[in-house]
Design a protein that fits this description.
The protein is mainly alpha-helical. The protein has helices at about 1-25, 35-60, 70-95, 105-130, 140-165, 175-180. The radius of gyration is 58 Å and the shape is flat.
């Protein structure tokens, strides 16, 4: 317990010392430094510059601008632009009444369209004509295919028969030929 009391007294002594130092520093007066004087000069310069701008605007309110070479050139360019736009409008209005007749391109497109129509019609006609054709009737080609099918069927059957006949043959038994070797 004594230990804690001693620690509390030390803390109080430290706080008292801090309070005394703060009290002694309250009476300190800060004088101008180099940095503050520079900032003041910059601020004053900025204020003067702004005031000069305000005065110039106020003085120039009464000034009338007379014609200049640049102004005359701009007026001329504006007049040319207006004239060009008016010409474009008149040309567009004049072209509204023009009727476009056949051109080489439209003739070619018409020919292509007619050819395409004929081709489609030929296809339709061919389909209509072939409605009566019966594909199930025998032809030379179907006879050849049937013959090939029958040969293949016989070949497969021969293979099956050979396997069935050779079931009883035991290849692991010694034969005369294996004895020679």
């Amino acid at each position: 317990m004594m230990f804690y009391m001693k620690k509390n007294k030390e803390k109080e002594a430290e706080k008292a010392k801090e309070r005394r130092e703060k009290e002694s520093l309250k009476n300190v007066v800060i004088t101008d430094t180099a940095e503050t004087s520079i900032r003041k000069q910059q601020h004053e310069g900025e204020k003067k510059w702004k005031q000069t701008g305000r005065d110039t605007k106020a003085n120039l309110k009464d000034v009338t601008v007379s014609e200049s070479a640049e102004g005359n050139i701009r007026k001329e360019q504006h007049g040319q632009s207006k004239a060009l736009k008016a010409t474009e409008r008149e040309t567009r209005d004049g072209l509204k009444n023009i009727v476009i007749t056949d051109t080489a391109e439209t003739d070619i497109r018409k020919q292509q369209f007619e050819g395409e129509k004929k081709w489609k019609q030929t296809g339709r006609d061919t389909k209509a004509n072939l409605k009566d054709v019966n594909m199930a009737t025998a032809t030379f080609e179907t006879d050849i295919r049937k013959e090939q099918f029958e040969k293949e069927k016989q070949w497969k059957q021969t293979g099956r028969d050979t396997k069935a006949n050779l079931k009883d043959v035991n290849m692991a038994t010694a034969t005369f030929e294996t004895d020679i070797r």
